[in-house]
Structure formats: structure tokens, C-alpha cells
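Supplementary Note 3. Input sequence used for the single-chain structure prediction.
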Amino acid sequence: MSPPSPSLRDALVGSIPSLRAFAISLCHNRTEADDLVQETLIKAWNNLDSFEEGTNLKAWLFRILRNNFYNDLRKQKQHNDYARAADDSQLVVAASQEKAVEFSDLIEGLRDLPADQREALILVTVEDMSYEDAAAICDCPIGTIKSRVNRARARLDALMHGVEP
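The predicted structure, written as C-alpha cells, is reproduced below.
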């Protein structure tokens, strides 16, 4: 394997914050998310020869991360380990009490979303990925991603306004 170009190395390093945010949204635990990102980067580094420069590196990395996450779930066969609450002490927002309550409600609403809807919503809204890239990462049709995002938004909106979805 030839060494990666400096721009590819920079792009890998630049992807770490986004990978970490996505991993946290999947794991709900910062330590496990960091381990997942590290595992993803190791796999990506060891398989750089299969990556075609000029294609979407971020989508490739997110797909590796997502596959690692679900492979780990299958190995452990304990889905409840990943359903733990996010560490709210590290999700601090300096805002008014009302904003803090809204933020807490949003985090709670995200936790209540089905995993497929939550990951689609995070990829499209937080990571600002196209539906096509999100569909490639989740290995499903574009229409499925659009539907998941729409259902997730509707459910979050209902939860944020105190309406039972």
C-alpha cells in the first residue's frame, strides 16, 4: 500500500469531529463513541487502498463507523448496552433556563426516536449530508432515508410541543 496523500491524511483527521458526533448519537456514551471512532479510523487507514480519491471520504468513513457499530451490537447481542442515556453533563449549553429545558427535551426526544430514524436525522440535519450519501451509509434507498427523516422530524416536533406522537 502506498502512503496516502497529505490531503487525504488531512481529510481523515478533519473528519474526526463529525465521526465522533455521529458515534455519540449511536452509542449514547462518549467513551464507547471514542472507541468506535478509533476503530473506524484504524479500519479506514488499513483499507485506504480500497478508497478512491475524489469520492466522498466522509460518506465512506461514516459507513465504516455505522457498520462497526452494528457489527459490535450483533457480537454483544445486548442492544440495551447502547441504549444508555447520553452524558448530559458534557452537553452543556450556556443559555436561559427555558433554552436549557428545550435542549433537554430535544435530547430526550432524540433518545426516544427509533435508531433508524435517529441516525437518518443526524446524518441529514446535523452532518448536513445529502439524502443520497445518507442512503449509501445506511445501505437503503433514498426514499427510505427521506421517510425516516420526515417521521423523525414529525415525532420530535410532536414531543417538543407536548403532543403524543
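The domain at 92-165 is CATH 1.10.10.10 (Arc Repressor Mutant, subunit A). Confidence is low (pLDDT under 50) at residues 79-91.
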